[in-house]
Write a structure and sequence with these properties.
Blueprint: H1 3-35, E1 38-44, H2 51-70, E2 79-85, H3 90-103, E3 108-110, H4 115-127, E4 131-134, E5 148-150, H5 155-168, E6 174-180, H6 183-198, E7 202-209, H7 217-224, E8 230-233, H8 239-250, E9 256-258, H9 266-276, E10 280-283, H10 293-303, H11 309-328, H12 332-340, E11 345-347, E12 350-354, E13 360-361, E14 365-370, E15 373-376
Parallel strand pairs: 1-2, 1-3, 3-4, 4-5, 6-7, 6-8, 8-9
Antiparallel strand pairs: 10-14, 11-12, 12-13, 14-15
Helix pairs in contact: 2-11, 3-4, 5-6, 8-9, 11-12
Length: about 375
Amino acid sequence: MKRTQIMRIITFLITSGLILLVLYYVIQQKFELQRKEIKIGVIASLTGLGSYMGEQQMKGIRLALDNINTHGGINGSKLSIVVEDSMSDSKGVIAAAQKLIDIEKTHYILGDSWNSTTATLVPLTNKKKIITISPVTSLDSLDADDYFFRTISPSRDMMDAIAQYAAQKMNLKKVAIIRVDTSYNVENARDFTDSFVKYGGSIVIDEKFSPNVTDYRSHLLKIKKTMPEAILNLHAPGPVYGILLQQAKEIDLNVRWLGHMSAENGEFLKVYAPLAEGLVYPYPYNSSDQYTQGFVREVQKQYYTSPDFVIANAYDATMLMADAIKNAGDNTDVAKKYLLSISDYQGVSGKLSFDANGNAKRSIIIKTIKEGKFIITE
């Protein structure tokens, strides 16, 4: 055999060996990354009354998860999620949390996406020292020095913003409130009343109704007798919200309408845009900010819709949790200290800081529905 042939064979074997070595290394790294996988829990209201919020929360979380893992995960380890459905129910959320904590051994939980279930969840996660970050829970009652954080402003901040706008920009003096008697709406009604009175207005009636009611005319007639200039509608948006507006029109109750942040609901607008024209509400997310445009385009590409505050806040909550794990590992006391140190964090939902109790401090804008679109008032 000629020397050149021998050299070719040797070169081939060396090259093949190197290729096999590289392949072995890549496969080994892949399995090593899987072995080091970091797991966090997610609780979302995927069924029941809060299903819309739960679906939006998952969109934001999955986008953030893809971003994190595309850029190397957390300290070289892949981040994965274990998702449990709270079913918008207090028993469901406890069952979900127990599975994540006791079986999956998670130290971090994202969620829930529904106020009442999060209120049920937090005592359990605090007892177990589980860092919990909710992207949507705004209950004032969860304002405490504990392991619970939120990327959205408390109810009192939201209601103060809309009360000030109603009194000083809309020049309203008399407002009625209509609501279901839930803990969330009790807080919103109280917070709005306190602020609106502070700004010189008065509440002419605070009308409550059962969650099972479908005919609101008797309640609306009662409100009509008080001659309000506007009504603060604290019902969850959707078909019921639209029916309420329709029935108000039927009895010639011609007033301005105020709402809360959940008024920005695309499904509601598709059906009830003409009735909702002029409705004014507070909102914790400005999708027109220059910084958010890349995120807006990514959401539109993935989900064929523009991001609302839930998607944006869920994305930021996931990114913040990843940062906490990167800095603290499984030590949730260190993670809590890290999160409390955050100031002016630039997320896709805007700038965010946490106060001493883990409440998000951020700007709130006022929006309205005009010609079938959600727009900023000024």
